[in-house]
Design goal:
Layout: H1 8-16, H2 18-27, H3 41-60, H4 71-91, H5 99-114, H6 129-160, H7 167-206, H8 211-242
Helix pairs in contact: 3-5, 4-8, 5-8, 6-7, 6-8, 7-8
Length: 247
């Protein structure tokens, strides 16, 4: 992956933590192309996104109140309630146990997307490896949930289609279709965030004061939309995996 410029946080990590990064990459069998700069921008932004989520959770939890909820609590409860309602509409009975995972997808992608608005930072989702990782987690999650809900045989029946005499034809097509899903999730999120980041940076270079504000607002809107689309598609995949034949 080509890195055109190094963010200040990435440079800081390369200066002080290049040793641990090289040790980890070597142990994983993927040594860094440049041992002096093993940290990449997507790595530093990914770690920062995770840390930010942890800090927000740590700050919000002691302030949770039933009688006097704060503005932050009301905001997060509204978003969580919306995701819960969407899960109910898409999955139906038994949706409750899947909502925490969907909320994790949404907030992680949203915060990662919005990182690009902050000067000196980038959205980790504008690098294809990050959306690909999240997409693979979604792929593994809905298949595991399908096996838990249906059993292995019941889950595999979904790949055979509704007509047993067409199973020989439908099974390989369904396997291909399911394998394309993480690719589709990856490209959709990566392409939109990469394009938004490049457009914002381009107009920021041409007119650094007024015009970029409009595109930063558009970037924020796209960040919400893409986080919701990814989460909604994950809901659909889980709903299809856990659905019984009679439904």
């Amino acid at each position: 992956m080509i890195q055109h410029h190094e963010l200040w946080l990435t440079a800081l990590l390369n200066q002080y933590l290049s040793g641990p990064a090289n040790a980890f990459l070597n142990a994983a069998g993927h040594p860094a192309a440049d041992p002096a700069h093993p940290w990449r921008n997507w790595m530093s932004m990914l770690i920062l996104t995770i840390l930010l989520m942890m800090v927000l959770a740590a700050l919000l939890r002691p302030r949770l109140s039933v009688d006097k909820p704060g503005k932050a609590q009301l905001l997060f409860e509204s978003i969580y309630g919306f995701l819960r309602q969407q899960s109910s509409d898409v999955i139906g009975h038994g949706f409750e146990k899947y909502v925490p995972m969907f909320a994790t997808f949404f907030f992680f992608i949203l915060i990662g997307n919005l990182m690009g608005i902050i000067p000196g930072f980038e959205s980790p989702t504008m690098y294809y490896v990050v959306p690909a990782g999240i997409a693979m987690i979604s792929f593994a999650y809905y298949n595991v949930m399908g096996v838990k809900a249906q059993g292995l045989v019941g889950h595999l029946k979904h790949f055979a289609g509704p007509l047993w005499w067409l199973a020989w034809f439908m099974f390989p097509l369904e396997i291909i279709s399911h394998c394309i899903r993480p690719v589709s999730l990856t490209i959709r999120l990566y392409a939109n965030m990469f394009a938004g980041e490049e457009v914002t940076l381009g107009f920021l270079a041409l007119a650094p004061w007024v015009v970029p504000v409009v595109f930063m607002g558009l970037h924020a809107f796209v960040s919400f939309v893409q986080a919701f689309i990814f989460t909604l598609l994950s809901m659909v995949y889980v709903g299809m995996a856990v659905a019984h034949e009679e439904h």
